[in-house]
Amino acid sequence: MKLSVKSLLFDYGGTIDTNGVHWGEVIWQAYLDSGVPVSYEQFREAYVLVEQTLGSQPIIQSTDTFREVLNLKIKLQFDRLGLIDFASQRTIADACYAQALLHTRRASLVLERLKARYPLFLVSNFYGNLRTALCEFNLIDYFQAVIESAEVGYRKPGLELFQLALDKTGYHPSEVAIIGDSYKNDIQPAIRLGCPSIWLRGKGWDNQDEAVVHPCIISDIQELLNIL
Predict the structure, then answer these.
(1) At what angle do helices 23-34 and 86-115 cross, to 10 degrees?
(2) CB count in 10 Å sphere of residue 158
(3) 165: which residues sit within 8 A by CB, 6+ positions away?
(4) For residues 74 and 142, what is the distance between their CA atoms, to the nearest angstrom?
């Protein structure tokens, strides 16, 4: 399938930095590799509670790097799980950061080529430090604008965040492709707005979307170069 569009709106977390794998699954794999003695159910509960805390309280500062955010996330998860193992905390955070480095470097090769043909925009639910993370991974210059939930007060899957980005592109929704890893947060809003969409479907947080049919599904971000 080939898409003919004039601009691209990218999701960030779970799309550019993990190549479609939900961050909860990335972190859980690092837990497994480190031999931390908790069940998947215990981890999921701690993960969700920590994400809710970070999303609702101004704990993360705009200048915090992604490495610092990962260190904080793992610490808070360990606190919630009642674990005192500083070595494992660091090992898990380092392993997750290595994954982010790997995938952002791969994604940058794709973004470099796409930028030559399209204006690129970023639309993300994030903690208020997305620009710092983009600079950290040398990605900031690929995007003409970054629309972040913590800055504007709207979150996906609400349409307001996407509408702000669409307004900045200057194009009709039918001319702007939305690219993301979440069917709920990226693909469904794109459908409602009348935008073409590309679903980077990797290992999700649950199995509820596995049976969903979509006309444009990829399993690796590099496949974008074959579609656009």
Answers:
(1) 140
(2) 13
(3) 9, 121, 123, 145, 147
(4) 29
Q: What is the pLDDT of residues 80-131, one digit of tens each?
A: 999 999 999 999 999 999 999 999 999 999 999 999 999 999 999 999 999 9
Burial class (CB in 10 A: 0-12, 13-18, 19+), 15: buried
Place of tokens 């509670």: 49
| pTM metric for this prediction | 0.94
* List of residues 6+ apart from 38 with CB closer than 8 A: 31, 46, 81, 83
CA distance 33 to 75: 17
- In sequence order, which residues have a C-beta less than 8 Å from that of residue 116 and are 6 or more positions away? none
Band (213; pLDDT cuts 50, 70, 90): confident
Grouping H, G, I as helix, E, B as strand and the rest as coil, residue 124 is strand
The DSSP output letter for 80 is: H
What CATH code is assigned to 7-21+102-227? 3.40.50.1000
Cα(197)–Cα(214) distance, integer angstroms = 9
Question: Which phi and psi (to 5°) does residue 179 adopt?
Answer: -125, 125
